[in-house]
Amino acid sequence: MTILKIEQVSRTFPARHGNAPTKALEPTDLVIGNNDFVTILGPSGCGKSTLLRIVAGLDRPTSGRVTLDGREVTAPGADRGMVFQSYTLFPWLTVRENIAFGLRERGVPQDERNKIADAFIRQVGLSGFENHWPKQLSGGMQQRTAIARALANDPKILLLDEPFGALDNQTRALMQEMLLGIWERDQKTVLFVTHDIEEAIFLGSRVIVMSARPGRIKAEIDVDLPHPRSYKIKTTPEFVQLKERLVEEIRTEALKVAEHA
Amino acid sequence: MRPLDPVTSKQRVVYGLAFFVLFVALWSWATFGGHVSKTFLANPLTMVQEGVELLTKHGFLFDIGMTIWRVVGGFALAAIIAVPLGVLMGAYKPVEAFLEPFVSFARYLPASAFIPLLILWAGIGELQKLLVIFIGSVFQVILMVAVTVGATRRDLVEAAYTLGARDRGIIRRVLLPSSAPEIAEILRLVLGWAWTYVIVAELIGSSSGIGHMITDSQALLNTGQIIFGIIVIGLIGLLSDFMFKAFNAWLFPWRLA
């Protein structure tokens, strides 16, 4: 059982060069239960990535705390796998070595490591590319490898920070289906940050809408669409209805950002 | 010709060789044509004859060997100390704050100005020659390696942390491999500089080496031998550079992929 608790977490970036301190995140509460797939939706600059980085342990909250199964998060760790928006595969390692990176850090013997890595390579559809360098892969393939790399560590929770943000629409849709397929099959606790409304609904069991800076949770919407979901669900009336509602929520926030810019 | 238009590899070779031909042609015109006195500049043929004589009668190969040994020795000594220090400085900011100001200062101390002092300390033996090259290279390598390691992509380091890497793992499995090609490039560059230091070291107080031969030839006004010596240095430099490049390409295939 995995429970992630975010309690009164806020983040203020200190003043620099005479500018006022930037309040990126207002005190925020959020509980994510076992095998939950929660998507955080918000306009750019709403602190959603900051929140995710705090959960990952890459950033420290100004106040409040994050606990995973009762233990406070103070630093990054293998129990919280992360997939970044930028391509962060290690360029000097092959696909297989990249996926096995975390296992090797833990001292898993090579044979076993390769076996696990190859299983994940099959799962993300990269068979035949085991010995390629990241440079030889397309953006979508690189992100698939990054997802496999995070999953191979068997983390308690998978954190994704707009992982498909840099991909073209068609590739992005395929990647969403792949990720959802893995989640439906293997069950995993997932926290997924995005600014794409369709993506948030299609993937999530719950969508958290965040307001513009300073970021705070504005709405929480359950997505009661049945699983397994296929891309066809995106045109059903239920989906469209949810989308309309979220468009309204996000639009007011985006307008606020535009006015302050 | 248009800006940034590429050339074929064949054209590249032809153009590159063409300049050498032009260079020798101008040289021949100046010397054979009698435009420059023989005392100041030997003609290409004399240079080749002198070179053959140097190699066959005066044991010039031994001098070349000595010079190469000094460069490689002094340079290896510098690299063994400078690379780990540079990595530490790049990885740990307190170490950088501690050493960087001094290394930046020491970098500007001219190695050749140390020669009189080094002769006093270490005599005119091999140790003195090695030390000149060492002083000339070590601070440069430290600083450049520190900058390279410090500039490692932050997102790769963060990714490694989220995969469970500890500080040791970050250094060994992220900072080092990601900086390794740059470090190899730095070494290639500084090795080229080491070649200028060694000749200076050999010009003063030496009984062997290419630099020593050049001073000897100066006393005899033998410009043919001097030019031959300089050309040999150039050729060795070119060859070592080529080997270094090929070695780096073989060592880091992921960069070319």
UniProtKB/TrEMBL annotation, chain B:
<dbReference type="GO" id="GO:0042918">
    <property type="term" value="P:alkanesulfonate transmembrane transport"/>
</dbReference>
<keyword id="KW-0813">Transport</keyword>
<feature type="transmembrane region" description="Helical">
    <location>
        <begin position="186"/>
        <end position="206"/>
    </location>
</feature>
<dbReference type="GO" id="GO:0005886">
    <property type="term" value="C:plasma membrane"/>
</dbReference>
<comment type="function">
    <text>Probably part of an ABC transporter complex. Probably responsible for the translocation of the substrate across the membrane.</text>
</comment>
<feature type="transmembrane region" description="Helical">
    <location>
        <begin position="130"/>
        <end position="151"/>
    </location>
</feature>
<dbReference type="Pfam" id="PF00528">
    <property type="entry name" value="BPD_transp_1"/>
</dbReference>
<feature type="transmembrane region" description="Helical">
    <location>
        <begin position="226"/>
        <end position="247"/>
    </location>
</feature>
<dbReference type="InterPro" id="IPR035906">
    <property type="entry name" value="MetI-like_sf"/>
</dbReference>
<keyword id="KW-0812">Transmembrane</keyword>
<feature type="transmembrane region" description="Helical">
    <location>
        <begin position="12"/>
        <end position="30"/>
    </location>
</feature>
<feature type="transmembrane region" description="Helical">
    <location>
        <begin position="104"/>
        <end position="124"/>
    </location>
</feature>
<protein>
    <submittedName>
        <fullName>ABC transporter permease</fullName>
    </submittedName>
</protein>
<dbReference type="InterPro" id="IPR000515">
    <property type="entry name" value="MetI-like"/>
</dbReference>
<feature type="transmembrane region" description="Helical">
    <location>
        <begin position="68"/>
        <end position="92"/>
    </location>
</feature>
<comment type="similarity">
    <text>Belongs to the binding-protein-dependent transport system permease family.</text>
</comment>
<keyword id="KW-1133">Transmembrane helix</keyword>
<keyword id="KW-1003">Cell membrane</keyword>
<keyword id="KW-0472">Membrane</keyword>
<feature type="domain" description="ABC transmembrane type-1">
    <location>
        <begin position="64"/>
        <end position="244"/>
    </location>
</feature>
